[in-house]
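Input record (Table S2, row 428):
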Amino acid sequence: MKRVVVEGSQWGDEGKGKITDYLSEKAKVVVRFQGGNNAGHTIVFGGKKYALRLIPSGIFHKNTVCVLASGMVISPAAFLEEVDVLKKAGFDTSKIMVSDRASVLFDYHKTLDGANEAQLKGAKIGTTGRGIGPCYTDKASRVGLRMGDLINKTSLQKRLKSALEFKNRELRSFNLPEVDFNSLYKECLKLGEKLKPFIANTAIYLQEQVKKGTKILFEGAQGAMLCLTYGTYPYVTSSSPMANSIPLSCGIPTNSVEYVLGIAKAYTTRVGEGPFPTELFGDFADELRERGHEYGTVTKRPRRIGWLDLNVLNHAAGISGINGWAVTLLDVLTGVDEIKVCTKYTFEGKDVTTIPATLEEYEQYKPHYITLKGWKEDISKVKSFEELPKNAQTYLKTIEKYTKVPIAMFSVGPDRTQTVVLHDPFAD
Ligand code: GDP
Ligand code: IMO
Ligand code: MG
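Output record (6-O-phosphoryl inosine monophosphate complex):
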């Protein structure tokens, strides 16, 4: 396979960064195609831990081209800061490309994100507060700016003026201070100068790479259940993390995607509000949270914890055509006597295995579990499927059985080396 996707199959934080970093060794180009710095992707190797928000997790491999494609929303300041941190740590940032069509995320988007959340009160989404929703809203409302506007003075002046007319009206409605055109314009000119070396027509670049048969890895952010269309709306993000959105977000032909690797945590977590049928509370949830260090990379919020939900995995697999699973954080379940897995829900006396469109219905779904025996052996150094304790093997086999998707990889610790490959997505 030449073009592989790393897709989150739950509510984000499945370990996409770790798996992307691992697979990047084989790829020449690694692409982030949606979202912005709401993502927090953690990578661990050589005794060090790195957290990426905007830059693809392929950056740690020499010679890898890292593309921030057109479907992304990018805060120029956050991007430049991330480049700086990576440079200081000794990594080559000269092969980063930013799409001229990617949306510019301004500070006023962050301000409006906060204001919208405050207005929602008890019904708040629990966003990361990074301005993602307001920035995508502007894109859809046609009042957004693109990265290309930052390096074209005439365009910048025109677009920013018209954007601020709308945005200042909105800020006034919240009794928030307006944004001054002149000072933001000057700031944008400076940012444009700094961004110039990175900005390119990445669609044309990626089309050429597809034609050449270059190995490309697409790194999703968030997860299927946070998809704007297929997630638990409105408790979702404002883009689609599904592989289906790649061709459009990157500007490449529809049939470009060849293999979708679904990243699935061995249990489930969620940050922010919204329904979560297999959620656990109390001491056991706290124990798993500590063991898995389940605190948000971006916001440091404690993540909500629950059992693995196979209906969620099937939902993701059905939409994006997942070809194989990478099951992560399997080691966190070590020592749990009995592990539950949700195989179906019950609703109004009937069995259901699909995710409904309305939240009001989903909130009433009761999870139905099967119980599997746990294992006590330390699995953090396991190098093959056969080395896993029998009960851990059965756990992975159960995922295969109910989803009819094979396990391609599993992960037994945060380090790059704690990864076991059963089927290399780039191999076929
Ligand atoms: P992402 O947003 O999908 O990239 O995931 P995050 O990086 O936000 O969260 C995953 C967390 O789990 C990070 O702290 C990783 O270092 C860690 N992690 C990834 N894989 C494993 C694993 O197999 N075992 C353990 N214990 N931690 C892991
Ligand atoms: P990675 O890529 C987990 C969640 C937020 C909130 C909802 C909307 O690290 O998996 P937003 O700021 O996007 O408008 O928030 O989406 N969310 C994430 N949850 N991992 C993420 O990214 C997330 N990005 C957004 O918590 O519930
Ligand atoms: Mg994350």
